[in-house]
Structures are given as structure tokens and as C-alpha cells.
Write a structure and sequence with these properties.
The chain is mostly helical and about 100 residues long. The chain has one domain. It is built from five helices and no strands. The chain has helices at about 1-10, 15-25, 35-45, 50-55, 60-75. Helix 1 (about 1-10) packs antiparallel against helix 2 (about 15-25), helix 1 (about 1-10) packs parallel to helix 3 and helix 3 (about 35-45) packs antiparallel against helix 4 (about 50-55). The longest helix is centred in the C-terminal third of the chain and has 15 residues, at about 60-75. It is globular.
Length: about 100
């Protein structure tokens, strides 16, 4: 449920709130790959790509994690200085190469 709430905040462009909620979900004993991927997306949308990549690496091989973060950067078209609006946020399938 926390993951869904966090992603709702993403859709309303409240990225710091989204991160806060997703970090709570991430700290839960029930955290799964979906929660980690959502947290990585929110962290990446805030321009912290290295941190996003390290989160993604928990579920993907290093080369795939790197490729996914590179794709996020490309989708945002803003390099390392990303501030996303709702139109800039890729869908769930966009995170995977």
C-alpha cells in the first residue's frame, strides 16, 4: 500500500513526499523488487542517478541497472540536473531496457 501511495505522490509531482513514503516501504520487512524499483525511479527523478543505480542493482545485474538509469536520464533529457514534471515521468515499462 505504501508503494502505491508513493507512486501517487509521483503523479502529483511531490517527489520528496514520494521518496519519504517509498523509503518507509523499503525499510519494511515486506519490501520487494517493485518497491525498490519505485524508490529508484523517484530518486532518479530527483537527479540522484548514482543512488538510483545502487538501489536498482539489488534486483538487476550491474549492466542492466546502469542501462536503466541511463534510459531514465535520456527520458528526462536533463542529464544530472533532473526535476521532473508529470509529463516527464516514464511509465513502469520504461524503466526496463
Amino acid at each position: 500500500m505504501l508503494s502505491n501511495l508513493g507512486m501517487s505522490y509521483v503523479l502529483t509531482k511531490e517527489l520528496p513526499k514520494a521518496e519519504e513514503v517509498l523509503r518507509r516501504a523499503y525499510a519494511s520487512a515486506r519490501a520487494d523488487s517493485r518497491i525498490r524499483q519505485n524508490l529508484a525511479l523517484v530518486v532518479g527523478l530527483q537527479g540522484r542517478f548514482d543512488e538510483a543505480e545502487s538501489i536498482v542493482k539489488a534486483d538487476l545485474p550491474a549492466d542492466e541497472a546502469e542501462a536503466n538509469v541511463a534510459y531514465l536520464k535520456q527520458m528526462l533529457g536533463r542529464g544530472g540536473n533532473a526535476r521532473a514534471g508529470a509529463g516527464d515521468i516514464p511509465g513502469p515499462d520504461a524503466r526496463r531496457s
